[in-house]
Amino acid sequence: MSDQDSTPTSNIQQKIPTSILDEMRSSYLDYAMSVIIGRAIPDVRDGLKPVHRRILYSMHEQKIGPSGPHKKCARVVGDVIAKYHPHGDAAVYDALVRMAQDFRMRHPVVDGQGNFGSIDGDPPAAYRYTECRLERISNELLLDLDKDTVDMAPNFDSSESEPVVLPAKFPNLLVNGSEGIAVGMATNIPPHNLGEVVTATIELIRNPDITIEELMLHIPGPDFPTGGIIYGRSGIEQAYLTGRGSVIMRAKTEFEPIPGRDREQIVVTEIPYQVNKARLHAKIGELIREKRLEGVSEARDESDREGMRLVIELKKDAHGPVVLNQLYRMTDLQSSYGVINLAIVKGRPEVLDLKSAIEHFVEHRREVVTRRTRFELQKAEAEREIVEGLGMAITEVDLVIKTIRESQDPDLARMRLMNLPLQGLEAFVRRAGRPEEEILAAAERKDYRLSERQARAILDMRL
Q: Taking the model in full, what pTM does it have?
């Protein structure tokens, strides 16, 4: 056998026998946690899943703000995939579309221009046709992002950095809700009224011992973007107390006389959340054709730009309330919303009651405000240092200018300025109106030496 055919023992990888059951358990757990934390479940602090956070951050970085023009969605989708979210373009575009749909989001965070779908279930146009920009409320999610308020992490190939969470000035998890199916768990958080949630948050800050029942005086229930009527309070109370519950929703209806006829019609102006209007209309028509819905002659959709209007004509001898109860029982004019307040808390999925959700947000905001204050303090101290150095240089301006002119290059000039003893610190501090303890401390210093930052600032000035 030739040397080329022989393989050295050192190059042979050692094979370790592994049970397929153990490997599947370990690998599937890793996969499950990746889906739970990295894709399907929102963070309790900003109420966003990673894909939504990356879309907003990408638009912020591209300066596609509420005061600027709309930009093609293709630009946003491409930037998100290239820099932050290495998944399919359809997944990113679907997430972008959802953030612009006012029938899905209580307060849309993206302003869409073009066909972004409808409550009838119409699909959005392709991203090469539609345009978008950030909504004004998005500024409150992204505010102070440039002040070291949140941690930044490297992206998938370490070529860019992205925020781990957004500063989020309001409890977006409760305001816009969330929905998602992970591995072995799901989340279904209803949207709420912004004013009510903010009021409840303020009350919790004022009184940390406030009870959930007292919070419910400010947040009586969900506030769905499609309107409708919540039927009963027991489901809401259970959801707020335990994090799980079922909310019964009914369409908003009214009875109208048919002009010129001795009959009535049921007019539907609001439908339950997540109900497809076109499918609801088709279902009612199917029940009429199959004669399973007595007392109804026809149903038609008269919705327009002014709002929703689904008309159900009654027969002459039909009793309206009876027919309406049949519609509630047989169609999605009445439906239930299963609440599962599941969110990521400190890296782990957790079911939250109403108070816990707000408390985690308040804790996040305290950290954001603390980090912002620390950043602004450091910035102010750096500016003060430079101003102080410039002021001291002015006290002996002739000596400073002479030192700079006699130096062959900027590096030498900087070193000479840093070694230059300057006098008059006490007088300068006194003129600046600083406190007495600072003046006394300045008087004890015999001479003043410029720091590197101060020397650079002096050299950057034009003589």
A: 0.87
